[in-house]
Write a structure and sequence with these properties.
Elements (H helix, E strand, L loop, with lengths): L7 E5 L2 H4 L12 H6 L17 H15 L3 E5 L2 H4 L9 H16 L3 E7 L5 H4 L8 H17 L5 E6 L1 H10 L10 H25 L4 E7 L3 E3 L8 H23 L4 H4 L3 H4 L6 H5 L5 E5 L4 E5 L23 E3 L16 H13 L6 E5 L8 E2 L2 E2 L2 H19 L4 E7 L18 E3 L6 E3 L1 H11 L5
Parallel strand pairs: 1-2, 1-13, 2-3, 3-4, 4-5, 5-7, 6-8, 7-10, 10-13
Antiparallel strand pairs: 8-9, 11-12, 14-15
Helix pairs in contact: 3-5, 7-9, 8-9, 14-15, 15-16
The site of 5-hydroxymethyl-3,4-dihydroxypiperidine has 8 residues, from loops.
Length: 460
């Protein structure tokens, strides 16, 4: 595997998944506190109240990163630590935490890569409509400006949102993530306001320090229909819609300043919240694009005649793009999440981004990883399947680079086992195992191999 000389090797986490300390130092509640405390929403009734207590163990965790040889650490900032009410008063102790984290990382020679929003919207803003309220976009920009003002003397590379597809479609469409709504029109509205918030935050940060590197992190994947269906079968429309929702909604608006026709054709269900000038705001030039990839997306035609996934003109019905299709059986080594392992999909994705978008900025792989819970034997966790996943995906990245795609770095998801959203603590993504009772951290064999990969710039 060949990687450019200055390729950046690191690993990623997010605030609610690791920090714990839910009420410490003035942190306000977020929608994930409320959601996880609602019975039935998260496996085992788990919450992020304590998580892996990173908030209190940060120096020890940074030392582990240093010992592993990480060159970069991608983390997210909890909006409600900085502004407990989502707007207005600033909580200095929250800002101080990220300031200390930044200093410790820099002292150890690790590049800090913050993301300003990884799903933990302040609960106070949800009470005012959350991402369905256009004002939330401006509040996000204001909050971003506060964090940027404090840390941009030491941090030059920033991401606005993480995986807005999840915030919009899992949070407001399928309802399996906070705030748990099930309405397609709401999902589209939330998507538009998230994008608007991104654009406004870019504008605010750019005006302060034009030379800083600003980007966004998207979860993207090739979308396939596996198997045959007659030309008039709804599966074809569903696949086009899935691709539009997962990939083109974000890429086309951000890079080309327009929404895909597949979505515009839905009419007011999609367009009701779009105002003149919004797309110009959303498509402000970026310096980099973060790509999160786990598996490609596969569906098979559903001949049962079920109307699940149908949406009417008011958006009733949950997930657009599911009518006439059902998930295809997983392929490759199946992860504990039931996900497929499809490393070639990453190569296909990267090459298609390069071909389809003339103004594609440099790409960073900001997440890629798998959930496996291999046993610890005499203190050793031999997670062979994670090692295979890691090396196969790195191979895919190196092939894409060889084909001319400008990929600048790779951040493995995740550095630590953590709170995996609706799955609670039941899915382990870490290079580092965490005993959730004692908080003991143990490097899996994959972490040791990753150190070697980093030392040798990709060579194993
Ligand atoms: O844990 C999540 C992360 O928060 C966002 N991307 C996908 C990961 C695995 O599900």
């Amino acid at each position: 595997m060949k990687f450019p000389e200055n390729f950046l090797w690191g690993s990623a986490t997010s605030s609610y998944q690791i920090e714990g300390a839910a009420t410490q130092d003035g942190r306000g509640p977020s929608i994930w506190d409320t959601f996880s405390h609602t019975p039935g929403k998260v496996v085992g009734g788990d919450t992020g109240d304590i998580a892996i207590d990173h908030y209190n163990r940060m120096p020890e965790d940074v030392q582990i990163m240093k010992d592993m040889g990480l060159q970069a650490y991608r983390f997210s900032i909890a909006w409600s630590r900085i502004m407990p009410e989502g707007k207005g008063a600033i909580e200095k102790r929250g800002l101080d935490f990220y300031s200390r984290l930044t200093d410790q990382l820099l002292e150890q020679g690790i590049k800090p890569l913050p993301t300003l929003y990884h799903w933990d919207l302040p609960e106070a803003l949800d009470k005012e409509g959350g991402w369905l309220n256009r004002d939330t976009a401006q509040h996000f920009a204001d909050y971003s400006a506060v964090v940027f003002e404090t840390l941009s003397d030491r941090i030059d590379t920033w991401a606005t949102l993480n995986e807005p597809w999840c915030s919009a479609f899992l949070g407001y469409g399928a309802g399996i993530h906070a705030p748990g709504h099930q309405n397609a029109a709401e999902a589209f509205k939330a998507a538009h306001h998230l994008l608007l918030g991104h654009g406004k935050a870019v504008e605010a940060m750019r005006s302060m320090k034009p030379e800083h590197k600003l980007g966004i992190v998207l979860n993207l994947a090739p979308v396939y229909l596996i198997g045959e269906a007659p030309a008039d079968h709804p599966a074809h429309q569903a696949i086009a819609l899935q691709d539009a929702m997962l990939n083109r909604l974000w890429l086309n608006s951000i890079l080309s300043g327009e929404y895909p026709s597949t979505l515009l054709d839905l009419g007011s269900v999609f367009t009701s919240s779009v105002q003149e000038g919004d797309l110009a705001q959303i498509s402000r030039p970026l310096d980099w694009l973060g790509v999160n990839y786990y598996q490609d997306s596969r569906s098979v035609p559903d001949f049962s005649g079920s109307t699940s996934g149908y949406i009417d003109s008011t958006g009733n019905g949950s997930m657009p793009g599911s009518q006439g299709v059902k998930p295809a059986p997983a392929v490759g080594e199946i992860t504990d999440f039931g996900w497929s392992t499809t490393p070639d999909g990453l190569r296909v994705l990267l090459e298609s981004l390069d071909q389809d978008y003339e103004n594609m900025p440099p790409i960073m792989i900001t997440e890629n990883g798998c959930a496996y819970d291999d046993p610890m034997v005499d203190g050793v966790i031999d997670d062979k399947r994670r090692i295979a996943y890691l090396t196969d995906h790195l191979k895919a990245v190196s092939e894409a680079i060889e084909q001319g795609v400008d990929v600048r770095g790779y951040m493995h998801w995740s550095l630590f086992d953590n709170f995996e959203w609706a799955e609670g603590y039941s899915k382990r993504f870490g290079l580092i195992h965490v005993d959730f009772e004692t908080q003991k951290r143990t490097l899996r064999n994959s972490a040791k191999l990753y150190s070697k990969i980093i030392r040798n710039n990709g060579d194993i």
